[in-house]
Write a structure and sequence with these properties.
This protein has helices spanning about 5-15, 70-85; strands at about 20-25, 30-45, 50-60, 100, 105-119. By secondary structure, it is of the alpha+beta class. A hairpin with a 5-residue loop joins strand 2 and strand 3 (about 50-60). It is elongated, with a radius of gyration of 14 Å.
Length: about 120
């Protein structure tokens, strides 16, 4: 397995251990976090290591639901806690909440890009 995919596997494992539903495609059931390659995806850092970036899209309930943004805040807190357990992982800086459409369904969500250092 490539280092980049190993990094993704470590992120997914930490999120799943924290009880967070994860997805790497648009097939998901909210609340969940969608984990996709970030941009730039991979760069050299402290050679021979590399850093990979991953875009996290936290999706709470339906965008029109009264408690969607409260659920989104709780989801972001749980994601942050899970990522603290991944060695070499930076904590996310979350964009402001907005509505995202995934496979035609609107969700309240927030996006962040994280970097994870590999050796």
């Amino acid at each position: 397995m490539s280092r980049a995919l190993d990094d993704r596997a470590r992120i997914l494992e930490a999120l799943e251990l924290a009880g967070i539903r994860t997805a790497t495609t648009g097939q998901l059931s909210a609340p969940a976090v969608l984990v996709e390659p970030g941009d730039p995806w991979s760069e050299p850092r402290r050679l021979p290591g590399r850093a990979t970036r991953w875009q996290l899209t936290a999706l709470a309930g339906r965008a029109d639901s009264a408690g969607a943004f409260e659920l989104l805040g709780e989801l972001v807190d749980t994601i942050d806690g899970a990522l603290r357990t991944v060695p070499g992982c930076e904590l996310p800086v979350w964009a402001k909440p907005t509505d995202y459409t995934v496979t035609g369904v609107p969700y309240a969500g927030a996006v962040a890009t994280i970097a994870i250092q590999t050796i």
